[in-house]
Amino acid sequence: MFKKSHATFPALLAALVVLLIPRTAQAYIGPGAGFALAGSFLAVFAAIGSALLLLLTWPARLIWRAVFRRRPPARSRVKRVVILGLDGLDYGLTQQWLAEGKLPHLAALRDKGCFRPLASTLPPISPVAWSSFQTGVNPGKHNIFDFLTPDTRTYQPKLSSVEIRPPRRSLRLGKITIPLGKADVRLLRKSKPFWNVLSDYGIFNCILRVPITFPAEKLRGVQLSAMCVPDLRGTQGMFSHYTTRPRDEGEKTGGEVHHVIREGNKVRGELIGPPHPLDPARGNLKLPFVVTLQERDRATLRIGGAKYDLVPEQYTDWVQVRFQVVPGMNVYGVCKLMLLQTSPEFELYVTPINIDPENPAMPIGYPAVYPVYLAKRQGAFATLGLAEDTWALNEHVLRDEHFLRQCVDFDREREAMFFDSLDKVRQGVCVCVFDGTDRMQHMFWRYLDDAHPARPKEVPVAFGRVIEELYQRMDDLVGRTVAKCGDDGTMLMVLSDHGFNTFRRGIDLNRWLEENGYLVVDDQRRNDEHLGGVDWSRTRAFALGLTGIFLNIKDKYSQGIVSADGEADALRQEIAQRLGELVDPQTGAKAVKRAYIAQHAYRGPYKDQAPDVIVGYERGYRVSWEAAIGRTTREVFHDNTKAWSGDHCVDPSVVPGVLFCDRPIETEKPRLLDIAPTVLDLFGIEVPEYMDGKPLAVGEPIVA
Predict the structure, then answer these.
(1) Residue 35 in this model has a pLDDT that exceeds 60
(2) Which CATH superfamily is domain 8-234+357-502+655-682 in?
(3) I need a labelling partner for 464 at 20 to 30 A (CA). Which of 12, 118, 427, 517 fits?
């Protein structure tokens, strides 16, 4: 049953439009994307307008496409291609559990078609890998090299994939600024996804939660964005922890601690929303709430005129929250809450406030009404790019079982969308990425690795096999997907963007650069984040993000000192060679498998935007938590004692992904960037010359 909402009319229009589509057709650390609300409160009206326009022009557009659309030069070999992405599914673990008979549906897919390791990208991290998946090109052509990149003027980290700017024009009335237009949200990934090429030929696409698709781009079909969609505050995920504990516990990475006071059986607090879009001097919008404590540790929450029951250690359903800017102008979000305890101290956890899919304040889907349709069909769902709250578990606000429940719940939301697309899109392409596989392996690898520094002496029984059970759940998902696909000319691929391995030791690259004379740090500011303590007048190289070292080049950075000619080339070679010789004094093991020079590793017009040196770590190593945010410590090597215990920010040879297909694939060494040209080739479309990938040798389906 639909929930009551002020947006019921546009939402029903959204559902009608989609249903009328012809059926034949810190973990990742860094600042947020920024959030420009100005103009976004018009989204509901824009949704109404676009829905009406689509309805009125649908017959004419259908005739136009039938007469004038481009035709594939060859006959299509498929009616539909379905791609199920399981982010981070590891080839080694999959191979092991296949051999043990624990993944029967994947085994059946292997026996019917193929199972191969799938080569990832350099570096093998999600934004880079999924960008190559969708475009079929290397990072030098799609411009995504990491989650973060340094600002050339300030050296501060910024998101590499999206830029959000306020409206160009505004009207100033005293302290109030009225936007004259809408926010400018730009996707910085370059090149063209294969579904846009398919769209040029009139082929329908349903693209669900593929990373690096925010803001959603126009295509022939529907799309819901994923990684790098911000929360309502403009960050990549800011949870809130309300507690009566003393204030000296301080802030938590990835979240905020709010000290509250119990008054009898009531606790009052405020949800923190986005910055005031009309008067920034007033700070963030806020929404007060009251928790009334009851017997047996239960409680009730009153917020925004609604009442909700709070049960200890159980998440609420999604709660819609409304932040009023001025009368008649509101910003909507959704969040889940969990009462952690009521005594002796009160503790309440609130997820990051997600953009409300029923009333999206930013372009999280295409057409704009598509997320509204999904919300009306299945209820509210997570829209945040990195929805699973890894930092709340890292910071011990959540426990393992709380985090696991989040991952399972979000996967179920994704399943509802995915199976809806399989029912409705009978011809064309359906792509859906599940990222719980990635998040859970990040957080629970310590239970798989006997030698991990974060592994407890006694492993809880419920979590000893948590990753194995994750793979079995995904195997069940594959089985149900196969049943949905049927034998009507559909080809199914199941793939991952990279694999996984243990993360035992972190490397402070900035400390290594400092010890080797490439970077100078003001000792009084050593603990500053975002490279705040670096003396740029004497620094030749610095590290930022997960895998990159940048040279402080003249005319590129505001305080650059390295000449862009021969000096830079020699410095890259020197750093890469010396890094390749780095040995961990505690273990005696090599820490870096290979250091790559971006100028040699990449091809394309954007390779100069890449880090100068890409570090391919050995198994068990990764950049340290401190170096990832530009903080310099006094040691190069650090034990990783966080729950985030597994990773893939290593050399790509260490963490291949997987490729399953229900048809034979004869190519022995498939690559992730081969998938896009393969899909085009299956539909009889000539592969564009700019693509680096090559079509895989796909055989005909085997008839039982």
Answers:
(1) no
(2) Alkaline Phosphatase, subunit A (3.40.720.10)
(3) 118
